[in-house]
Write a structure and sequence with these properties.
0% strand, homodimer, Tetracycline Repressor, domain 2, 2 domains, DNA-binding, globular, mainly alpha
DNA sequence: AAATGGTTTAACCAATTGGTCAAAATTAAA
DNA sequence: TTTAATTTTGACCAATTGGTTAAACCATTT
């Protein structure tokens, strides 16, 4: 119904995203991207000089999306437990909508670790704010004494890992019943939240 | 000192493992594997018919290593907390020694999800035993009521994820100070253990 | 020493791949 | 309409890649 007209460049980016996310840099073929976009292969080189340049555009975008954004939640003076609840729900929701994103980022990050340093500096996300919030919460005595970095990684781990290993989980824990897996992933929003809070709250 | 003589086949497997783990199937080059093994490229095809066959050998091995083995700990009648402690320590230790293993497995699993079904069936690992132990522990009243599958995934998540995203963690949380990251990974043995137990133990 | 069977090599091949280039098609400007 | 600029295409290329093959090498047996 709502037929959106895409410019050729947007069209290419959309197609490149699809192919790169699914096949990675080495596995992706310029011809396949062109086919996906319904254009001639030469056009890819007309808009983006090379495969690397095109990939760079896709990767930068994916990487920024992969980095957790919690700015809004931090500004409003919510409690740490509220922040955790909101973040876990929003992040898992985003991952469900972009199931190929984590594999893509993790894979390319490890394939080419050097390149990310620049991207990181450009990404304007700083985890230090969150760290200080956690620390102040410890001092206030609302949560146990825990290294903020470990806590942050713990939360991220439990959100992202199931998406990364979905095929294994499907085959292993759920006998290839994909519907059950989907349900399982949905459940994790509440499960991860309560698991974390349960672990750090002082009683 | 202890100079070990490797057969050509073992030599090839060793080289293939190194290259495949670092570059993945698409990124790996048969010539590079041959160079790494110090032999002619044709020898690869002499011992293994094709790139796919050679890859299969490497992948099967990696996949089995990636799957958590907890058989011994389960047979001896240890408590759940002891099992968790032992497992987390052993698994993270293994991951430290094989830093490329998780990326490799996760990447190829997602690139070719269909193939793993056979491998899973051949791998002879069943998580059901662990699930029943967790369930009985819940009935005994030593831990809170929690879905065993979620608990298992939580533990695995927190062990594997930091290894998978090491380059991001290095750049982001530790300003590229690799020594600090190494320390951080080591710390996770105790951190993950206590985080989990803290979350599920009934007081 | 000659024959035999497994191992290793160098040269080569067909197919694929990222990329180029000049011409055609389309759009905008005059 | 004509001209100029931009966009799109098809044909083509050089380099790479997985794989083949016949010959050389080597150890063992006869």
């Amino acid at each position: 119904m709502t037929k959106i007209e895409l410019t050729t460049e947007e069209n290419i980016l959309e197609a490149a995203k699809k192919v790169f996310h699914k096949k990675g840099f080495d596995g992706a073929r310029m011809q396949e991207i062109a086919d996906e976009a319904g254009i001639n292969k030469s056009l890819l080189h007309y808009y983006f000089r090379s495969k690397e340049k095109l990939f760079e555009a896709i990767f930068q975008d994916a990487f920024k999306q992969f980095l957790p954004k919690i700015g809004e939640a931090l500004i409003s003076n919510k409690s740490l437990f509220e922040i955790i609840t909101l973040f876990v729900n929003a992040y898992i929701e985003m991952l469900i909508k972009n199931p190929y994103l984590p594999v893509f980022v993790v894979n390319e990050i490890n394939r080419n670790p050097d390149k990310i340093i620049d991207i990181i500096k450009n990404s304007g996300v700083n985890p230090i704010k969150l760290e200080s919030i956690i620390l102040s919460e410890i001092e206030k005595g609302t949560i146990i004494n825990i290294n903020p970095k470990h806590l942050i990684i713990n939360i991220l781990s439990m959100c992202v890992f199931p998406i990364l290993t979905r095929p294994i989980i499907t085959g292993f824990l759920f006998n290839n019943d994909t519907a059950l897996v989907q349900e399982f992933i949905e459940e994790r929003k509440s499960q991860v939240t309560s698991f974390v809070i349960n672990s750090i709250k002082l009683k």
